[in-house]
Every structure is written in structure tokens, then in C-alpha cells.
Amino acid sequence: MTDPAVAPPRRSLVHHRDFRALWTGDALGQLGAQLATLAVPVLAVQTLHADAWQMGALTAAETAAFLVIGLPAGAWVDRMRKRRVLIGADLVRAAALGGVVACAAAGVLSMPVLYAAALVMSCATVFFDVAHQSYVPGLIGLDHVVEGNAKLQATASVAQVAGPALGGVLLRVVTAPALLVVNAATYLLSVVFVARIRADERLPPREERGPLVHEIREGLAFVAHQPLLVRIVVCTSIGNLGWSVVSALLTLYALRDLGLTAAGLGVALSAASVGGLLGALLGERVARRVGEARVIPLAAVALALPMACVPLAGVLPWNPEVTLAAGLAVAYFALVVFNIAAVSFRQRLCPPRLLGRMNASVRFVVWGTMPVGGLLGGWLGTTVGVVPAIWVGVTTGVLAALPVLASPLLTMTTLPEPAEHPGIRTGS
Predict the structure, then answer these.
(1) Mean pLDDT over residues 159-173, rounded?
(2) pLDDT at 393
(3) pLDDT tens string 236-257
(4) How many Cβ atoms are within 10 Å of 203's Cβ, its own excluded?
(5) Band of the pLDDT at 205, cuts 50, 70, 90?
(6) Bridge partners (DSSP) listed for residue 425
(7) Which fold would CATH assign to domain 13-194+212-417?
(8) I need a surface site. Which of 34, 37, 73, 172 has the fewest CB within 10 A?
(9) Domain boundaries, the chain
């Protein structure tokens, strides 16, 4: 006879039907996003001959919506069925990419067209990301959020490995616009799988809703009154600022300064993403061994320092592709571990009714610095040169670790205890 005091072993989310559907849809969307991350900058540099400033503006356009509509998006998502938001966002992103392909086929593609498509996709991504992070805890239960986030991070990491490699191979035989067709198809396939989720999501009664401005303020206030969460948010926002400076110039730097081909860049990024895959596979184990709280500041440091390999790739006496891939691999490993712990932290901390607004408030701050970083990278690349500008971004990333290093997180081991999450009633 089983001892009632002994808890039964927790069943893996692999057996959770709705999570499998979300997981598969997310995998397809992540693969598409990685293809676009390679194809769009290559299209801008090789076909439209974009300069540093234009590449910075393109990076800013890709994340501008988090700064412009990030806060109201959270309140809106809290009033919507999140599965429908995910489906709608994927359809919009597929349509935007289709527009770029059509313009390229008609011979009218230009940088303003890429800016417009990036802005549309940025808006769709705001709603997708806020809905996704708010949907997962209720769908699987807070006891499973670390496992769920680890599996979703594993998906993202596999996509980061497969996407650039696949894109690099395809760019040997097809054009960048043709690669965007594949990208659009992955978003449409994502819709098919997400639409299979059967969970009955319950929205808060209309009478409990307040004015939009009040709900936005409520989400911001929750974040502002959580000292540890504030430190994580400040760390992430400064880190994203620095990474956006580097990211804005990375393709230009690799293709023009390092002399890599588009396929070579894809291979280097794919090799680097193996670090992210290892982080996803080992992240939960690392967090439990080191401490789910302590791992956050340690991962922040491990993320920032290897980024110096990017500007050093042009001066060290090794193959630049190897130097680039090695530095980014260590950084991606630490980034995934950091994300698993940080996202689980805030999902456990926040009351269910505030999840959308809390996630949007966090995204507004941490992603709102990215368009600023993109423009800063473009301006610095134009005025002081591409390599000095990348060094500014790397230095900013190192400084980003200070808020969490000088915090109680370094001496803590566990995250806050999970609370009941009644937001979604799941089926078998």
C-alpha cells in the first residue's frame, strides 16, 4: 500500500497534451524567427547595401513596439484569450514577411519596406511574447514552470542551432527573399499546432476590469514594489541595451570587416547556439545545483564577459569564425540559464490576474532599451567606427551585471514559493 505521506513522482510535461501542442508551435515559430534573423540583415547588407546607420535603424524597428505599445499590450492581453492572441500574432508575422517577398519579386524592395515590415512584426511579437509568458503558468501549473520554461528554452536553443545552419545552407542555393518564404511557412505551421490546444481559459469578469490606464499603472506598481525583481529588470534592460549595439552591427562587421560569407556567418551563429542548447538542457539542473536565485547574478557575469570575443575576432591569431562562435557559445549558455531562472522568478511571484500586465511592464523596460541600443549602435558605427562601437556594447553588457551582483540574490538559493494559479482550467 502506498504511503499517503509520500508524494507521487511528478509527471513530465512531455505527457501534457496541450503543452506538447504549444511546445511544437513555439518550436516552429522559433525556427522561423532564427531564419529571419539571418535572412533580413543579409538582405539589407548584400542586396540593398545598407550602411551602419541603416542597420541600426533596422534593429530599432525590430524592437520598437516594446517601447511604444508594450505597456497597454499587457492590459489588453489580460482581457483576451491568450491562445487567440498567439494565433493572430503568428498570422500577422507571416503576412509581413509575405509583403517583403512580394516587394522583392516586383523589384521595389527598399530599406523603408524592411523598416515597415520590421515594425509590423515587432508589434505582433509584443502581443505574442506577453501572451505566451502569461499563458504558460496557467496551462501547466506553477509546480511545472521551471520544467516548462526549460523545455521552451531548449526549443529556442535548438532553433538557434538549426536556424542559422539551415539558413546558411539555403542561402548557398536560394536568395534571401526565398528564405523568407520558408520563414513565413513556419509561422503558419505554428498556428496549426497552437490551434489544437484544448484548455478552457477563463477570463476575469468584465465587472472586475478597471480603466486601461489604471490597469497599466497596477502592473507597473507591482514590478516597482518587488526589490529583487527590479534589480533583475535593471540588469536585463542594461544588458539588452549593450547587446543591441552589438547586434545592430554584427552582420555588417562579420561580412565586411571579418570577410565572412553569409553562409559562413550562418555556420558561426549555429555553432555558437550549441551553447544555448546546452544551457537549455542543463539549465534546470544548474539552477538547482547552484541555487535558483544565486544562479541569476552568476549567469549575468558569465553572459557578459565572453562577448569580448566578438570585437576580438578580428585581431586574435585564430580563425575569426571560431573566435566568434566560441565567445557567443559561452554567452548563449549563460543567457539561457539566466532566462530560465528569471522568467520562473517573476511567474511565481506575480498574482495570476496581473500576469499579462506584469510581463508587459517587464518587457517594456527590458526590451524598450533595444531600439535605443540599435540606434546608438548605428550612430556609433557611423561616427567612431564599427569595432569601437561594438566595444561600447560589450562594456555596457559587463556593467549590466552589477545590479544583481550587489543584491541579496547572490546569497539566496531558492525562488519564492509558488502560489495557486486558477487562471486556466486544463483538460486531460
Answers:
(1) 65
(2) 95
(3) 999 999 999 998 999 899 988 9
(4) 13
(5) low
(6) 200
(7) Growth Hormone; Chain: A; (1.20.1250)
(8) 172
(9) 13-194+212-417
